């Protein structure tokens, strides 16, 4: 490599720790004949500043993987890291602090507090953590999400799309290490879905945010840089730059084949 600037950048990227990672993650429910192997030694790294979608048939382990990555559930064995912090062995209190400080969430059910205004909902995690709100950053996020004239409204006075945008703003305003979305567009019409996905896309492109979502929708997954497919608790495909049709075809293929057959394809 003759260009020293490029060589330096490549070396820096090679050293940068992933925003989150799982190593040999196993999650087993139950015992004996009723054992469910939700995750079978899943290892995956999520690079900073990338948008990843996790897909797979129902019951393939998507939510379990996301919940373990986000510190909402503990694995049977294996390791999870958020930045350079290993989650194994953290106390409940440390885990709560880690989720509060490093992780943003956008879930299907939004989880907004009905009695608080949009503004209060957006700053709630920072207020609970006793952290100062960066007013300029808040203004940027609110402006970009088109919420400037809705900040005084309560969730019941907002449309479904606006509620979801408030949930996105709440996840973005603390500049977390990583944002996890569990079916973030699951309850939305196609216009509001596209809005939320383009907000997440923009947060990656313009703010360098790291985003990982679980989705059933190939169109939603096509907003991501990378799509990871799970089947029967294992990663069976991991690709970048897929279009909606490619994702749709692969999902059809996954639904039609057992994981053991996929490995031989
Ligand atoms: N608390 C639990 N107790 C027992 N089995 C569980 C529990 N939670 C999940 N499972 C099982 O673990 C497997 C993976 O579940 P998971 O919810 O991660 O799948 P998923 O891919 O997110 O599914 P879906 O797309 O339907 O939400 C399934 O077989 C599920 O039934």
Automatic annotation (TrEMBL):
Sections of the chain in a coiled coil: none
Cross-referenced InterPro entries: AAA+_ATPase (IPR003593), ABC_transporter-like_ATP-bd (IPR003439), ABC_transpr_LolD-like (IPR015854), MacB-like_ATP-bd (IPR017911), P-loop_NTPase (IPR027417)
Pfam families linked to this entry: ABC_tran
PROSITE patterns linked to this entry: ABC_TRANSPORTER_2
GO MF term (any one): ATP hydrolysis activity
GO terms under cellular component: membrane protein complex; plasma membrane
Keyword 4Fe-4S on entry: no
N-terminal signal peptide: none
Annotated SMART domains: AAA
Alphabetical keyword list: ATP-binding, Nucleotide-binding, Transport
Residue ranges constituting the ABC transporter domain according to the UniProt record: 23-257
Protein name, UniProt field: Putative ABC transport system ATP-binding protein
